[in-house]
Write a structure and sequence with these properties.
The chain has 177 residues and is an alpha+beta fold. It has four helices and eleven strands.
Length: 177
């Protein structure tokens, strides 16, 4: 079935590939119309974020949760109450074989990163330093160091760049020996 426009006359063709003669119907006059939709969306603040009414233009920070056709903005602490989602903090640790001097590693990382600070021995149980307050590098033994960080996008980027820097230092050490 299809619509054909022949000499200004619209005809609906209903050919069904049978032996019966095809049927041609004149199309009914249909007025054109347009539908307009409001593109604004409304989100309700719930629980802790709803305790205080925000002023006009004030920013509300939280998680936007879409459920069916409704939107809700909620605080991170309320996420598990109103959804089946939960939040966890993930601590990561990697141990790398490193036989170079720990001071050389710290010096090289100071050249790359703005903030490299030594940690007291009581806090870290041995020589250690912190890179940008997100990553801790610990001296484990003569052949190993370990990196510790709490997983989030920034910490993961810092840890990736520190790991690559350590591997490059190892390549330089082995190429000169």
């Amino acid at each position: 079935m299809f619509m054909a426009d022949i000499a200004g006359v619209r005809v609906l063709y209903t050919g069904d590939y049978s032996r019966e003669e095809d049927c041609h119907l004149c199309a009914a006059e249909i007025l054109q119309f347009s539908l307009y939709f409001n593109s604004e969306k409304m989100a309700k603040t719930i629980r802790r974020l709803a305790e205080k009414t925000p002023e006009v233009g004030e920013t509300v920070s939280g998680f936007l949760v879409k459920k069916a056709f409704t939107y809700q903005i909620m605080a991170l602490d309320d996420l598990h109450v109103f959804s089946q989602l939960s939040t966890e903090n993930i601590s990561q640790r990697i141990t790398i074989a490193y036989s170079g001097a720990f001071g050389v590693l710290k010096h090289r990382l100071k050249q790359i990163f703005e903030s490299v600070e030594s940690l007291p021995d009581e806090e870290s149980e041995g020589p250690a330093f912190r890179v940008h307050e997100w990553l801790t590098v610990k001296y484990e033994s003569e052949k190993h160091i370990s990196l510790h960080w709490r997983s989030d996008p920034i910490s993961d980027m810092v840890s990736d760049s520190v790991i690559i820097s350590i591997l490059l230092i190892l390549i330089l050490i082995t190429s000169y020996c």
